[in-house]
Design brief:
Layout (H helix, E strand, L loop, with lengths): L1 H19 L7 E17 L12 E20 L2 E11 L2 E11 L2 E12 L1 E14 L2 E12 L3 E7 L14 E8 L6 E11 L1 E2 L6 E10 L11 E14 L38 E9 L5 E2 L4 E12 L4 E3 L32 H5 L2 H11 L5 E5 L11 H18 L7 E5 L12 H7 L1 E6 L2 H4 L2 E11 L2 E9 L4 E10 L2 E8 L7 E4 L14 E9 L4 E3 L3 E3 L1 E4 L1 H6 L4 E9 L11 H10 L8 E6 L7 H19 L3 E4 L11 H7 L2 E9 L2
Parallel strand pairs: 16-29, 16-30, 18-19, 31-32
Antiparallel strand pairs: 1-2, 1-13, 2-3, 2-4, 3-6, 4-5, 5-8, 6-7, 7-10, 8-9, 10-12, 11-12, 12-13, 14-15, 14-22, 16-21, 17-20, 18-20, 22-25, 23-24, 23-26, 26-27, 26-28, 30-33, 31-33
Length: 667
């Protein structure tokens, strides 16, 4: 509010100071009044902190009024500058219709949200006179929003004699202040006005006008909610008659003077611009982050089997029963083209986002299996004891299985509760988010078993190339680009503006679909341009590159090995015991470990908890796994981030143990 007062005071000061100069220019100032037709465009279910069962508010209108002061004065050429300050009311009535089942059948009822949105409007604009008296103006409406209030209710409008279960035609009436309002609303505007002179001196004008304001910013920081307005009304303008310009005094004639000798002034020569220079060098970076000179990059292929654990949880946003868009939902037609094999080149998390499709296809392949769908909530805030929300979440998942994949509803068992049976720590925001979920379980292990894929994996030595770019110039750097290519194919590009960073790291295998595939040198260089339009291209440097494929090793009868990677998850929060699901995975792994294989077991944790505790917990998980396998070297990495720790599924996948089995292959 203090900020608003500052802007209002600034506008008033500008208005007063400009008025004081009215006699020195063709200035106009006055008052205006408008009728406003507000057109709201929205996409939200409820106001912040105000429970509502509406599916979505999308639009609404209202007629209001506004008015204030104006000042206009010549600007450039045929253009005038206009500045207005006014009170404006951008209120609106938003409505959304749903159906409710009553004794008379399905009856429509309306959600009504009446929002009162006052504001102080500052409108700078440029005006252009198209013809005598007709002016076009365009500019911006900068509206400093004041305190906003609301009232909402649900109402059955027809037919008569129909009531809600509460035996009333109106329910859920609430009102109060709207939270999280935006401080400023911005709207480009355009309009027309025609000036009618009201006296012979043409100092007083009556101006009918119309303008359109298109809202481009939201009314609320947390909602998709904009308002556009059509304004129509009148302005009364006063333009003081300018003082007459005095006639200039006659210039006395001068006697011709004798010509003087010309003075020769030598134009200074600008110093030459310093040239721009660019260069770049590269080093290798090992797994421990240590730099070393790189003589050659070697990428080698190995045959591999992978077990990707399938997290059988679907996570939901706060107080929502809508399945998040990050989960891959297919249409009834496209589901026929789905196969787990198509996920071979996808990441572990991308495989997880297909969890509903994977389980649905397994249910089709195992027609006697049943699936239990358990809805849960965080039991905090708006979700406190909200078992109805848990039920809605479970039904949303069930509907996807039944309607998209045609799974018989008799095979889909829906249950619901508040907190999950084994909840995460509900004293933290991360734990609360993890408890907003639906859990999938089955009477058949085949439905929720891990995803097993046969694949070819790559290793790189070194795994990371670090580039050190340098640009020398006396002017500002406008932009720069570092590119890495092989045989005219660009594999990596770094770009930026202003100063180059100290170094740039390229993880060669970060994108399996974009890895150099030939045994030819990699070329790298930097190009830079400064604000003086000078361009510098560094020398093109190279690093030898070798690609060792499985086919090449077999053809050349070289030593080889298989690298199998298995992952275990479903460790309970802050626990290291191996549960029944992980025991099944270990039973799959153990017979596949040859006597001459090298086994490395690495444990991890999520970010919750202190570093030392997580280090010990991850080591305990690795040691328990080694004990169950009967072989291997246990390593505890603690909370090393393998997956995104900011999302619930990422934290669950970080509570993992990886088992790497390297088996030499005889020549």
């Amino acid at each position: 509010m203090k900020e608003n007062r500052f802007y209002i005071f600034t506008a008033l000061l500008f208005f007063v100071c400009s008025s004081l100069n009215a006699q020195e220019s063709n200035i106009r100032y006055g008052i205006f009044g408008h009728g406003l037709l507000n057109m709201h465009n929205a996409n939200f279910r409820e106001l912040p902190g105000v429970p509502n069962c509406c599916k979505s508010y999308t639009d609404g209108t209202a007629s209001t009024i506004g008015g204030g002061f104006l000042i206009e004065f010549p600007f450039l050429g045929d253009f005038d500058f206009s500045f207005r300050m006014s009170y404006a009311d951008y209120s609106g009535l938003l409505e959304s219709t749903d159906n409710i089942v009553t004794a008379n059948g399905s009856t429509p009822f309306t959600h009504k949200l009446n929002a009162t949105i006052p504001g102080i409007s500052l409108q700078p604009s440029l005006m252009y006179e198209i013809t005598k008296g007709l002016r076009l103006h365009a500019g911006f409406d900068l509206n400093y929003l004041l305190n906003q209030t609301y009232s909402q209710k649900e109402e059955i409008s027809s037919p008569n004699g129909t009531f809600f279960p509460e035996n009333t035609r109106v329910r859920n009436e609430t009102s109060g202040d709207i939270k999280d309002n935006a401080a400023v609303m911005i709207a480009p505007m355009i309009g027309l006005a025609y000036e009618f002179p009201m006296n012979a001196k043409r100092t007083l004008f009556l101006t009918p006008e119309v303008q359109y304001q298109h809202g481009i910013t939201n009314l609320n920081n947390n909602l998709d909610w904009k308002v556009s307005t059509i304004c129509f009304g009148f302005a009364l303008k006063y333009s003081p008659k300018p003082n007459p310009i005095p006639k200039p005094e006659p210039i006395p004639e001068k006697k011709p003077e004798e010509p003087t000798k010309p003075i020769i002034v030598q134009t200074p020569v600008a110093p030459p611009k310093e040239p721009i220079e660019a260069d770049i060098r590269a080093v290798g970076l090992d797994d421990n982050g240590k730099e070393f000179p790189v003589a050659k990059i070697t990428v080698e292929e190995f045959l591999s089997s992978q077990i990707r654990p399938l997290l059988n949880y679907i996570f939901f946003d706060e107080n929502s029963a809508e399945i998040s868009a990050k989960y891959m939902k297919l249409s009834p037609q496209s589901k026929n083209n789905f196969s787990v094999k198509t996920l071979q080149n996808e990441s572990t998390l991308q495989t997880y986002y297909h969890v509903m499709n994977i389980i649905a296809q397994r249910l089709q392949d195992n027609p006697s299996a049943k699936l239990t769908i358990t809805g849960c909530n965080s039991n905090e805030g708006n979700e406190k004891n909200n078992s109805l929300l848990s039920q809605k979440r479970a039904n949303a998942v069930k509907d996807y299985f039944s309607k998209t994949w045609n799974i018989d509803e008799k095979r889909l068992i829906v249950t619901y509760r508040n907190l999950p049976e084994k909840p995460s720590n509900n004293d933290t925001d991360d734990g609360i988010a993890e408890n907003r979920r639906v859990e999938l379980s089955s009477d058949s292990w085949k439905i929720i078993e891990p995803v097993i894929l046969n694949d070819t994996i790559r290793t790189s030595n070194p795994p990371i190339i670090r580039f050190y770019p340098t640009v020398k110039t006396n002017a500002d750097i406008r932009d720069w680009k570092v590119s890495v290519s092989q045989k005219n194919t660009e594999y990596k590009q770094f770009t930026g503006t202003q100063e180059t960073p100290q170094f740039l790291d390229w993880n060669i295998l970060s994108n399996n679909n974009n890895v150099p595939s030939l045994s030819d040198p990699l070329f790298f260089s930097i190009k830079a341009e400064n604000s003086d339009n000078q361009v510098a291209l560094s020398p093109v440097r190279s690093i030898p590159f070798e690609q060792i494929t499985v086919q090449r090793k077999r053809a050349e009868n070289k030593s080889d090995k298989e690298i199998d990677r298995y992952s275990l998850i479903l460790f309970d929060f802050d626990r290291s015991e191996i549960g029944s699901a992980n025991k099944r995975i270990l039973d799959y792994i153990k017979p596949r470990i040859a006597p001459n294989a090298t086994v490395t077991v690495t444990g991890y944790t999520d970010k919750i908890g202190d570093d030392q505790h997580n280090k010990e917990l991850s080591l305990q998980r690795a040691q328990n796994t080694v004990k169950a396998i009967g072989k291997g070297n246990a390593i505890g990495e603690g909370e090393k981030e393998i997956f995104d720790n900011t999302i619930p599924e990422g934290r669950f996948y970080n509570r993992t143990v990886t088992v790497i089995v390297e088996t030499p292959i005889s020549k």
